[in-house]
Amino acid sequence: MRxxxxxxxDNFRKLAKARLPWPVFDYIDGAADDELTKGRNTSAFDEVxxxxxxxxxxxxxxxxxxxxxxxxxxxLMLSPTALQRAFHRDGERAVARAADKxxxxxGISSLATHSIEEIAELTEGPKLFQLYVHKDKGLNANMIExxxxxxxxxxxxxVDTIVSGKRERCLRSGFTTPPRFTPSALWSYAxxxxxxxxxxxxxxxxxPNLDGHVQEGSGKAVSIQDYFNTMLDTGMDWDTxxxxxxxxxxxxxxxxxMSAADARRAVEIGxxxxxxxxxxxxxxxxxxxxxDQLREIVDTVGGEIEIILDxxxxxxxxxxxxxxxxxxxxSGGRLYLYALAAAGQEGVERALLILKEEIERGMRLMGxxxxxxxTPDRLRWR
Length: 382
What we know:
Number of helices: 15
Largest sheet: 8 strands, parallel
Order of helices and strands: HHHEEEEHEHEHEHHHHHEHEHEHEHE
Structural class: alpha/beta
CATH superfamily: Aldolase class I
CATH class: Alpha Beta
Radius of gyration: 20 Å
Strand content: 5-15%
Strand order of the largest sheet: 4-11-10-9-8-7-6-5
Distance between the termini: 37 Å
């Protein structure tokens, strides 16, 4: 299978599976426990039908919208994800360049493999930083200050990782950061020579946003579960979120809100946006899918705060359904990570082009010429 054979996100997934050692692929692809929530995140979109109008004069359409104060060419964001250099030697650099080319938001994680400063220099486009609150308060303050100085447009505080979900695929494979060549997976690494040579002879695997504070995950191999369970602040609460918002002083979002009550609290502390997200099904298996929960949250805080629908997005029509149901935009991680793993920046650009064309085609077939015409009357729940 070649990159030119990829015509949807599932095609990129298959190509990524062929090119990555299985512990690395399973880290991207896997989720918590029985992975029921991961599957529901996508299948939830199947419960809603689009209702098109015809003869609407759709020769010219506008797919752009405003997200957190910045113009986006599409109602679609690239969610921040960790450890990207484990998937392709260019990691976050490739994603930043692709997002800049297509004029969409992207984010980097506290556990990114390129630094805040390096990514900021690559793009003038909209970018956010995903903050994991560590027990080391000096590290938290350092990352916030670096993002301020580098000109990041928004900070997203991740609130759903107080402890790690049980990611059974990673337990079976022994995946760590940095990746280790374990005996059980040695054959898989040996039969993926392109990935293995890039990893061994490419730039040293690092988590540079943690420099000077944390060795785990960069100089010292550790599983993601152990990292979350030992390094992150389990005492984080609403007062913590309010203080971080004040320390940051800029556009502020909470990522991982799933209940209407928490959405209301986010408004009360002055957050600019919430991401309805269950961390791609990687935390609490059996939790509700973001799209299933969207209407309840829109009914509670719609119009008071921006709402990003994050999770399970695989098609342009998923973004259209999200916006029509009341979200500001849709967002996803695996939708571009598969493409990054498959072919680096070229892969991410092809994935974005496919999604862009799906959004454009879907809008024309629905008879809408602008994103603000995507309203609830365009949907029917089965």
